[in-house]
UniProtKB/TrEMBL annotation:
Organism: Streptomyces gancidicus BKS 13-15
GO MF annotations, alphabetized: catalytic activity
Domain AB hydrolase-1, first and last residues per copy: 12-231
Name of the protein described by the UniProt record: AB hydrolase-1 domain-containing protein
Alphabetical list of Pfam families matching this protein: Abhydrolase_6 (PF12697)
InterPro entries per record: AB_hydrolase_1, AB_hydrolase_fold, Sec-Metab_Biosynth_Hydrolase
SUPFAM superfamilies: alpha/beta-Hydrolases (SSF53474)
Amino acid sequence: MFHRSHTPRPTVVLDHGAFADSTSWNDVARELRREGHPVVAAANPLRGLSGDAAYVREVLAGIEGPVVLVGHSYGGAVVSAAAVGADNVRALVYVAAFVPDKGESALDLAARFPGSSLGDALHPVPVTLPDGSPGVEFTIDQAKFPHQFAADVPEGVAQLMAVTQRPVTGAALEEPAPEPGWRTLPSWAVVATEDLNIPAAAQRHMAERAGARVREVRASHAVSVSHPQEVTSVVLAAAASVTR
């Protein structure tokens, strides 16, 4: 009797960006699990690009089998860097994300295209960086958060997201990216057309430059919360390419 071989579904690793936390992936993770995918929502330290990428790479090293690596916002820069040297990563997905080339920073890319109102919504706080040097970290003012980050999310949910947001250091946003994983890995991208953090024009430019398969969704920066089915469908397309 012949037995059909079973190829295990790839694990999906979800990496949040600045001003969010892992719970921003809850509905996407639920949909992916229904489709039989193991899911890990990594806690992005948001302290510095190289250190954040090193941490995600350690998470990847603890996973057996192929991985689809997904990054939102600043997390796009992190997954691009983390994928290099992580042999189990088979595909990248960028969700309303920075997709930097070598030498570019999130701050560089944010300033390159008009349309972001993020700067006026930020609240800076002095901090000591991991290396002991003085720095600054940013959150979005809680009163401004729903409109700035999550305009198409129910008000009560957006207010809770404002409370649970995690700060990002200025150093993380300023650190130049290393060689990106998208140069050697197939990529997909969700462009949020109503994004007030990373303008849609910037998202399109970066995604197309990376050769990503692009899907546009009329959504705020919090597209994984407001449109989880659409985001999930793109992740599933990337995962399907791994198992063919």
